[in-house]
Amino acid sequence: MSSMTFGRYTFRETFIHRLDARNKIFLMIIFMVGIFFQFNLWSTALLLSGFYVILLIVFMTIARINFLSLFKSLGGMWIFILLLMAIYIFIPNNNYYLPTAFTIGNVDVKWDAICQSAYIVMRLVLMLALTMILTSTTKPMDMTYAFEWYMRPLKPIHFPVNEISMTLSIALRFIPTLLDETDRIMKAQASRGIDFNHGGVFKRFGAIIALIIPLFVSALERSEELANAMIVRGYDPKAKRSKYRLLKFSYRDIFAFLLIVGLFGLIIYLSVIDTKLNPLDLVEIIFKVKGF
Asked: Is 242 within a domain?
């Protein structure tokens, strides 16, 4: 747990760290929408997927994010990923047109199913990588100010913008504390003989229960302490507040905005011409030439 960096801000002097938090959140949403665009032709989907992966590698390299931390963050998702792949591979689909890759019993596993499951998994990994880039390069308070700025148009309809932004700020600040508390409880339980890494399903489930219950109690205690401290200091959620640091756009934000928006425009263009092309795409041609 001590090596887990997902959700924890890491100070660096990089191009991505210096971007405005409002711009980073907007561009991350645009990028995620582009990732989940659906294409009819596998050649278009594979081409863009490779471009996404290269672009994410470049972003993580610029932000100096450890690639191992991304794979460690996937540890709890492997069961879900395997289940998702099994659903796509073994459930029949009449829309598949590529030949059979192999047969398990009476089930024919199509190349379409393998490509589709791998494509879905790649989307999830890219989405997680984008979230890691955002949380690792943006201070919690800057992220809170950005969300508050986006919710500002809702103030005339008496939407509780200040209360929600404060709740979000506390939640973001609590993530590193929760990770440290989890590490402390795991070490304490391990010293009492509880093994989190070995054993069967029921033994591991019992070990997880021994971790979750103390962690839940500790989180409630810390929440109560924070609430009492805010009450003692006279916190008023409806009071008007000023900000010590103001978020400002710079030339870096303009460059990043034009880059991602241009990419999104290219994705929209490809999705439009994708529906007008011949359904016999490059992937099907390769399979026919190779004789799969």
From this structure: no
